[in-house]
Amino acid sequence: MDEWKPNPAAKAHKKRSWYLAWKYKLMNQRALRKLCQTGAVLFLLVTVIVNIKLILDTRRAAYEEEEESAQDYDDEMLNVEVPRHPVSNKKVLDVEVYSSRSKVYVAVDGTTVLEDEAREQGRGIHVIVLNQATGHVMAKRVFDTYSPHEDEAMVLFLNMVARGRILIFTIKDEGSFHLKDTAKNVLKSLGSQVAPFLSWRDMWTFAGKKGGEVYGEKHAKSPALSTWGDPVLLKTEVHLTSVEGTSGRCCGPATERTRRRKKFCSKVEGYGSVCSCKDPTPIEFNPDPLKDNKVFDVPVAVIAGNRPNYLYRMLRSLLSAQGVNPQMITVFIDGYYEEPMDVVELFGLSGIQHTPISIKNARVSQHYKASLTATFNLFPDAKFAVVLEEDLDISVDFFSFLSQSIHLLEEDESLYCISAWNDQGYEHTAEDPSLLYRVETMPGLGWVLRKSLYKDELEPKWPTPEKLWDWDMWMRMPEQRRGRECIIPDVSRSYHFGIVGLNMNGYFHEAYFKKHKFNTVPNVQLKNVESLRKDAYETEIHRLLGEAEVLDHSKNPCEDSFVPDTEGKVYVMFIRMEQEADFTTWTQLAKCLHIWDLDVRGNHKGLWRLFRKKNHFLVVGVPASPYSSKKPSSVTPIYMEPPAKEEGAAA
Amino acid sequence: MQRINKNVVLALLSLTSLVFLLFQLYYYKFYLSQKNGSVFSKVRGLQSGQDSTRWHVVRKFLGLISTHNIPVYLIDPLILGLVDKDIEQIRSSPDGPSPECKYFCAPRDFTTFALVDKTWKHEVSLFRAAEKMGFQWLKIINKDPRLDGMDDLSGIEIALHYIFKLASHAIHLVVFYERSGNYLWHGPLRLKQHTDRKFVPFRKLHFGRYAGAYEKPELLLVSIDDLKVQIPKSPSSFLEEMSHSRFLECRYREARAFFQLYPDDASLDAVEFRKKAKSLLHLAALTLNSLGVKFWLSSGTCLGWYRQCNVIPYSKDVDLGVFIKDYKADIIPAFQKAGLPLKHKFGKVEDSLELSFQGDDDVKLDIFFFYEEDDHIWNGGTQAKSGKKFKYLFPKFTLCWTEFIGLKVHVPCETLQYIEANYGPDWKVPLKTWDWKSSPSNVQYNGVWPVNEWDDVIQIY
């Protein structure tokens, strides 16, 4: 080391000064003495200077090394600390709640925590839950109680909110039409004077503590059926409690799971027993693994918006499905919403937020594109991706179903997708969980996408943001589908529970989704998977038609008696279908059978397969279908006329 | 009087000298203790105590990760270099006890291991166990580059590097991610503001100065110095790969800014062209890689990558560069076999060689051969009808990896200089009309081919 060098010199010097004194005594010669002294002084000076220099040098060297060691490795982006809203120690919050026909807002201490003045959106009762100790927003919901069953959801939600939380209500547009007594009583029990008498187009605001005091309530009655009540503005003060009585609700051993749960429960409200200390709802499920799971390495993309309670329900069912691999799941959230992200983190999954692009359908479509691209980027060696939405329940044998059928998608070029959803699979029209169909329509709602299809065909020409198209409608267009088909099960492996959505409302859901059949049997062994291949399927259909009994075409097909009271038989009926796109009779038949009639779904070359009274029921369109040849010449295809007056479908 | 004065001065100086001496000793000791043995290792590097510390730390680390079932493999260049010398022997006797500590005791500050991200589940328990064993650890996270190219996706940050420190030795665990283009990527090591800059001497790390791209290695389980560890099957080729593994990310942010100014062409023609260009590039890469010919994105294709991270839809061809020293006579037959017939061949191997292959529907693949001079690199051009020669000059460059439309390909590391040489300072402005003889800013007239050579140097099919 360099640092050592001068030291011997310094040591030698001390010796020398002693030696000089000795020499001085000995010789006593003035001139020599003087010379020696000057020399010694000079030498000492040099030593000191060298020493000082050395110290400076080492210090600089050390400093430089320290500087250098990290210079190259500095992150070019300084981590800008996001300024947090200062949590004031104030004990009193000023709360403003506004209710009117076209706008609602809630402001807490001058900060707007809710503002909705969008047209044709956000109708119903808006509910906000505040933490009684900090004043932070823990939940924000809107229940469209103009539509049926939303009040039940609200009651469920209110029951899940912990005691002591601050609840704020406000109505936008209309919130009373389907607000039943049960819900009104719950509101009354919270301290509302007005709730039991809320009526058509009344405006209403209310703030109170669950199981405690009422902070204020305002109400404006609608003077006539055609007009709304006057806007009301409630201004009140809320006293914060010093300690959050419920912060320690999540206890248990200090595991990763407990940590996640604790974090979740300190932030959000409305998830019931997830946050209760005694016997909380599990957040890890450990379903049985699948033997020979062919979809273990297939990434799962969950497409989500801002419906965190839906997402919560969805992820619970997904993580309970046998053969699920949580590591392959990514939740894509459209927008920087916190609560869905909290839900994702509660389950220890990875979530990605997406800045919304465009509006309405195009926004959903852009979100889909970004999510699919990201999925294949994150899992570059995946050949497929499972695409799910946040408002689906996933069947316990979802992955088992895919594992048994996915090889078809890999090998059969004529396939477009595998979907877990049968558009025509209602309680009264689906029967056999082991049965699969080939259909020309793409059902979506839980499906598998081939990477090559996405990368080579769909991604490059995906609708751009300015085109307000539905992604699924676009995918169903002949330019994209190119005659390929999807494989679906008879009994759906997913269940669409979403009531609130872009194209969804309570009526629509009740009419078309509620009675959908959903498989709950684990480990269903699929039947005859190989017969789903392109050519084998034709053989299979011909065999089926060959053994099918022709129904009595003189009867009304809408009547229950049209199908005999048997079980396990195969019946066929023939309807009129002039050309490939002639679905006049089919649509009428679908309507009276109470299955999907808004557009044509579930067909395969002019053939529909469903179940009636536990019998396999085939419908063949004559003469457009190639299976028309199976029609006995004596039978006249049934023709059903559309009603003269067009009924507006509630799509 | 004078004498006393002098004596006093003398004494004072002696005293100062003594004080300085003491201070120096103290300072040196302080400096040493702070360096945490790194100086000692040099001074006493040969002492067995230090050597076995390294071995012990590695052993402890391997024990830790094997109890957590984490499949790491050794990528330490120093040790792999030593291992490579004895590779035959190590391969032939995978279980033999070693007489001396030959590899893991070699003097160094770190031992580097690799981990492929998808092969383990990020577990907090690993770090708890590591702490219990006495390890201090540091995790370096950053943005996920696989989502960087995506509009407005905010991914979670991913772990890029881990450093486990025990006593005077540290384990550097590099996390590799699989990316589109079938390769492994590791990120650069960048310290965030509040990271302890002195945790280890970061500059001495072998990985992390830049991001890197690697092929998926074949692994071999060996026993060296009585430790079972996975190593790349061929350490020498791994080390070779490592020496030029630097990876450049596409400039997604700038590309987005570019598309703000000049919206992307989303017409069907553009979509179709991009699709064809992509498959042509994939085919060309496959063909050249199988021949072992190193190539890079050149001209318009390179500009497309650098400026917009995509194929320029009106560019009408795919351009590649190859150093003339890598030229192989098999190139033409190999492309013909791949279904790409030769369209024209200009120049000869000694001068201005340029090959052009015909892809599907008018999409052309141009391969320009580059000639290295002392202070620049150039490639040539030939005008078919006049036999005129042109020369395009470039400043010297080296090659880096990047990812482009689902491929791991080379680009010049000094991309900006390369592009500015070719397209001038206004390369950011899209030009639809481009004349290869006059538009490039680095073009030089280079005479005319002698007429008797024309048959050879101007071949058009």
UniProtKB/TrEMBL annotation, chain A:
Q: Where in the cell is it found?
A: Golgi apparatus membrane
- Give one Pfam family, short name only: GNT-I
Q: Taking the first listed entry, what is the main subcellular location of this protein, grouped into a coarse class? A: Golgi
Q: What top-level class of enzyme does the UniProt entry assign?
A: transferase
InterPro entries found in the cross-reference section: Glyco_trans_13, ILEI/PANDER_dom, Nucleotide-diphossugar_trans, O-linked_mannose_GnT, POMGNT1_PANDER-like
A biological process term (GO) from this entry: protein O-linked glycosylation via N-acetyl-galactosamine
Which reaction is catalysed here? 3-O-(alpha-D-mannosyl)-L-threonyl-[protein] + UDP-N-acetyl-alpha-D-glucosamine = 3-O-(N-acetyl-beta-D-glucosaminyl-(1->2)-alpha-D-mannosyl)-L-threonyl-[protein] + UDP + H(+)
E.C. number(s) listed in UniProt: 2.4.1.-
Q: Which family does it belong to?
A: Belongs to the glycosyltransferase 13 family.
Summary of the function given for this chain in its UniProt record: Participates in O-mannosyl glycosylation by catalyzing the addition of N-acetylglucosamine to O-linked mannose on glycoproteins. Catalyzes the synthesis of the GlcNAc(beta1-2)Man(alpha1-)O-Ser/Thr moiety on alpha-dystroglycan and other O-mannosylated proteins, providing the necessary basis for the addition of further carbohydrate moieties. Is specific for alpha linked terminal mannose.
* Domain ILEI/PANDER, residue spans: 123-212
Gene Ontology, cellular component aspect: Golgi membrane
Q: Which organism is it from?
A: Dryobates pubescens
Record PANTHER family: PROTEIN O-LINKED-MANNOSE BETA-1,2-N-ACETYLGLUCOSAMINYLTRANSFERASE 1
What does the record give under GO molecular function? beta-1,3-galactosyl-O-glycosyl-glycoprotein beta-1,3-N-acetylglucosaminyltransferase activity; carbohydrate binding; manganese ion binding
List the cofactors. Answer: Mn(2+)
Keywords per UniProt: Disulfide bond, Glycosyltransferase, Golgi apparatus, Lectin, Manganese, Membrane, Metal-binding, Phosphoprotein, Signal-anchor, Transferase, Transmembrane, Transmembrane helix
- Record pathway: Protein modification; protein glycosylation
Cofactor binding comment, as recorded: The manganese ion interacts primarily with the substrate UDP-N-acetylglucosamine.
Recorded protein name is Protein O-linked-mannose beta-1,2-N-acetylglucosaminyltransferase
Q: How does the annotation summarize its subunit structure?
A: Interacts with DAG1 (via O-linked mannose moiety). Interacts (via transmembrane domain) with FKTN; the interaction is direct and is required for normal location in Golgi membranes.
TrEMBL record, chain B:
Please state where this protein is localized: Membrane
List the transmembrane segments.
7-28
Mention any one GO cellular component term assigned to this protein in its UniProt record.
Answer: Golgi membrane
UniProt membrane topology term? Single-pass membrane protein
Q: Which InterPro entries match?
A: FKTN/MNN4/W02B3.4-1, FKTN_N, LicD/FKTN/FKRP_NTP_transf
Top-level lineage group: Eukaryota
Q: Which UniProt keywords apply?
A: Membrane, Transmembrane, Transmembrane helix
Domain named LicD/FKTN/FKRP nucleotidyltransferase: which ranges?
291-329
Per UniProt, residues of the Ribitol-5-phosphate transferase FKTN N-terminal domain are 1-278
Q: Which GO terms describe its biological process?
A: glycoprotein metabolic process
Work out whether the entry's keyword set contains Membrane: yes
Could you say which protein family the record assigns here? Belongs to the LicD transferase family.
Supply the PANTHER family for this chain.
Answer: FUKUTIN-RELATED, RIBITOL-5-PHOSPHATE TRANSFERASE FKTN
UniProt protein name: Ribitol-5-phosphate transferase
From the broadest rank down, the organism's phylogenetic lineage runs:
Eukaryota, Metazoa, Chordata, Craniata, Vertebrata
